[in-house]
Amino acid sequence: MLSYAFRRLLSTIPVLWIAVTACFFVLRLAPGGPFDGERSLPPAILQNLAAHYNLDKPLIQQYFYYVSDLLKGDLGPSFTSEDFNVAQQIMVGLPYTFTLGMTAFVLAIVIGVAVGCLGALYQNKMPDYVLGAMILVGVVFPNFLIAPILQLVFGIQLAWLPVGGWGDGSLKFLVLPVVVMALPHAGRISRITRGSMIEVMNQNFIRTAKAKGIGPRLTVMRHALKPAMMPVVSYLGPAASYLLTGSLVVESIFGLPGIGRYFINAALNRDYGMVLGTVIFYMVLIVFLNLIVDIAYAWLDPKVRNR
Amino acid sequence: MILNPAKRELLAAELLEAEGLSPEGRSLTKDAMRRLCRNKAAVVSIVVLALLILAAFIGPYLIPHNYEDPDWAAFRAPPSWEDGHYFGTDPNGRDLLARVLYGTRVSLAVAFVATLVSVVIGVLYGAISGYFGGRLDSIMMRFVDIMYALPYILFVILLMVIFGRNVYLLFAAIGALEWLTMARIVRGQTLSLKNREFIEAARASGQKPLKIITKHIIPNLVGPVVIFAALTVPEIIATESFLSYLGFGVQEPLTSLGTLIAEGTDAMESMPWLLVFPAIFLVSLLLSLLFIGDGLRDAFDPKDR
């Protein structure tokens, strides 16, 4: 188990290196830059700016500077904000994005697994149809459509919940964004759970459990749930990455001060330093989430471990 | 019980029909099409999709207004039958119906081209990787694994930031990043195909590997590729709308459903029609594509039935 985890950890290094290198060169080879604004700056100032951000050095040298800074945890300067560098801005946004993402992640898993199990146990009955409807809503209504509808209904018409913003960070500010983020994933997770649960329930060891006279609840909880969870666990890696892209929209719509909003603003303002830093940060996050998911998977399935 | 021969024949045919058999053999495709036609949701979806496509490509010629010229007499006009703005107008006085139809057209075009790009890359990549196998296969598939681990939407945003909001680039960028699953599916199919006798025969007759891939392997992949492509289309439309919503999509005066929804969201309290109509179009488009894709998969894949 430990050696598997270690091997998996080692294999993330080339992934991250390729990702960082690709992002760096794609951004640096791009035409245009953060300093071509509407009013053109005098050449002397441009030269100073370029020197300040090391942009006048050869590309390969810039790359080495960047990577060595990166290894020290420095994501470089932001080209538009003088007071904060990229790492500082990310640190400011991180708690919000983290709270939001984790809450949505847990909520999606809990709802998805519960609804999926119900759907499998009551195949083609009421709970199953509710499940079907949920999946459809999650898949067909993109989050940028659900969010304004919920804002309109619960924020404005009923006035139960705040329309947006973080406020004092209390629960009522979290409800709408978290629901919007969790809903599509709850749908997908419940579909996966339903499928694998049906498959597991038809297997011999479940028949044995039933034959021994164990009640349906115990059969599911003790025998069926763990093997049925495997496809769900393997979905969690991609789910984390989808959640993250979802947070880009959700943070913009609800006006939350997370990393997603910094990223969108930076991208629209062509703040390459910030874009590069945020993308790299996101990728490290996702690669590590995938790592955790893989290790969890190996823990659930001994066959994977020994491969 | 003795029946006259004609009646016995009829009865036998009915029995066979009831079991899904018929005296003449049916091909796999015909069988699948039959199953597809029996799937009510899929049939309705095909009709809806056909109507949407017709509306998007012919509709603009039949309505009195055009998608980019403002109507100086009607700013922020609610939907009305009298002045020909059936869906109302936006804050710039442009006819919403025309814009929605145009946006649908852009979304469909993006979906079509991006799916094509993803199919071409995915099929070639998967077939080559599966056919040659060995070290090449493990390197190529490792690369796919790496790409999977990365949040690809960030890459698309990165590309859009760098190269401007060019519609063609949008096509290519989305397509170039959606091919991963396609490559995996095609590789799996190729692995099972490449040991079959007809491939062996082709090899024995001295054909070059690339020719075997294009002439013998790829034609046999059509089924799964079509099914998966059908499932990719709604995803691409959703992605395109997502990018347009964030402001990385097509540029004014061109529009797409995502852009329209973004504009509608800003004004949803005072001008709800700006949100409602594009939303209806997007949702029915996604819904019908989803049902068609699912229907195709169920019709072709006996395991899922």
UniProtKB/TrEMBL annotation, chain A:
Answer whether the UniProt record assigns the keyword Transmembrane to this protein.
yes
On whether NADP is a keyword of this UniProt record, the answer is no
Q: What membrane topology was assigned to this protein in its record?
A: Multi-pass membrane protein
SUPFAM superfamilies assigned to the protein according to its UniProt record, in alphabetical order:
MetI-like
InterPro entries, A to Z = MetI-like (IPR000515), MetI-like_sf (IPR035906)
Q: Where is the secretion signal located?
A: none
One Pfam short name: BPD_transp_1
Its localization reads: Cell membrane
Q: What is this protein called?
A: Oligopeptide transport system permease protein
Similarity comment text for this entry? Belongs to the binding-protein-dependent transport system permease family.
List membrane-spanning regions: 12-30, 98-122, 129-150, 170-187, 232-254, 274-300
Q: Which UniProt keywords apply?
A: Cell membrane, Membrane, Transmembrane, Transmembrane helix, Transport
Instruction: Name all ABC transmembrane type-1 domain ranges.
Output: 94-293
Automatic annotation (TrEMBL), chain B:
Which keywords does this chain's UniProt record carry? Answer: Cell inner membrane, Cell membrane, Membrane, Peptide transport, Protein transport, Transmembrane, Transmembrane helix, Transport
Q: Where in the cell is it found?
A: Cell inner membrane; Cell membrane
Q: Which InterPro entries match?
A: BP-dependent_transpt_permease (IPR050366), MetI-like (IPR000515), MetI-like_sf (IPR035906), OppC_N (IPR025966)
Q: Where is the chain membrane-spanning?
A: 41-63, 106-131, 143-162, 168-186, 217-237, 273-293
Which residue ranges does the record assign to the ABC transmembrane type-1 domain?
A: 104-293
- The organism's superkingdom is given as Bacteria
* The keyword Cell membrane appears for this protein: yes
Name one matching Pfam family: OppC_N
Membrane topology of this protein: Multi-pass membrane protein
Name where it mostly resides.
Answer: membrane
Q: Which SUPFAM superfamilies match?
A: MetI-like (SSF161098)
Q: Which family does it belong to?
A: Belongs to the binding-protein-dependent transport system permease family. OppBC subfamily.
- Protein name from the UniProt record: Oligopeptide transport system permease protein OppC
Which species is this record about? Neorhizobium huautlense
